[in-house]
């Protein structure tokens, strides 16, 4: 299993989850866990995904997700789980 953490932050609008999940599904990335909330009109989502069977390499997926975020007006970041964990260790 190759896990990654995807975060999505921005002004809330219709279809954010649908667009992100559609991209992931189209490229054979499995969503393992998802949490989202809206705080005062701002959308926040964190996903744990498995990209082991993805049809794109990790770097291409990261770039595509950033571009998708630009298209829908949010900021999308994707990091390998081990990097995310090391960065957020207390």
Q: What is the terminal separation in angstroms?
A: 25 Å
The mean pLDDT is 94
For this structure, the CATH topology is: Alpha-Beta Plaits
Q: State the CATH class.
A: Alpha Beta
Radius of gyration: 13 Å
Our count of domains comes out at 1
Biggest sheet: strand arrangement? 2-3-1-4
Number of strands: 4
| Number of H/I helices | 3
Which spans have pLDDT < 50 for at least 5 consecutive residues? Answer: none
CATH architectural group: 2-Layer Sandwich
Shape: globular
Beta-strand portion reads 35-45%
Please provide a written account of the structure.
The protein has helices at residues 16-26, 58-72, 81-87; strands spanning 3-11, 30-39, 42-50, 74-80. With 90 residues, the chain is of the alpha+beta class. It has a single domain (3-87), classed as ACT domain (Alpha-Beta Plaits, 2-Layer Sandwich), CATH 3.30.70.260. A hairpin with a 2-residue loop joins β2 (30-39) and β3. α1 (16-26) runs antiparallel to α2 (58-72). The longest helix is centred in the last third of the chain and has 15 residues, at 58-72. The radius of gyration is 13 Å and the shape is globular.
How are the elements arranged and paired?
Layout: E1 3-11, H1 16-26, E2 30-39, E3 42-50, H2 58-72, E4 74-80, H3 81-87
Antiparallel strand pairs: 1-3, 1-4, 2-3
Helix pairs in contact: 1-2
Q: Which keywords apply here?
A:
90 residues, alpha+beta, Alpha-Beta Plaits, four-stranded antiparallel beta sheet, 4 strands, 39% strand, globular, UPF0237/GcvR_regulator, UPF0237 protein BL1209.1
């Amino acid at each position: 299993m190759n896990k990654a953490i995807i975060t999505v932050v921005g002004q809330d609008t219709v279809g954010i989850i649908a667009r992100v999940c559609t991209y992931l599904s189209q490229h054979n990335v499995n969503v393992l866990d998802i949490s989202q909330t809206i705080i005062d009109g701002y959308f926040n989502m964190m996903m744990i995904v498995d990209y082991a069977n993805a049809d794109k390499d990790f770097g291409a997926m990261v770039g595509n997700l950033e571009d998708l975020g630009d298209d829908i007006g949010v900021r999308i970041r994707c990091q390998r789980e081990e990097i995310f964990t090391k960065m957020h260790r207390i």
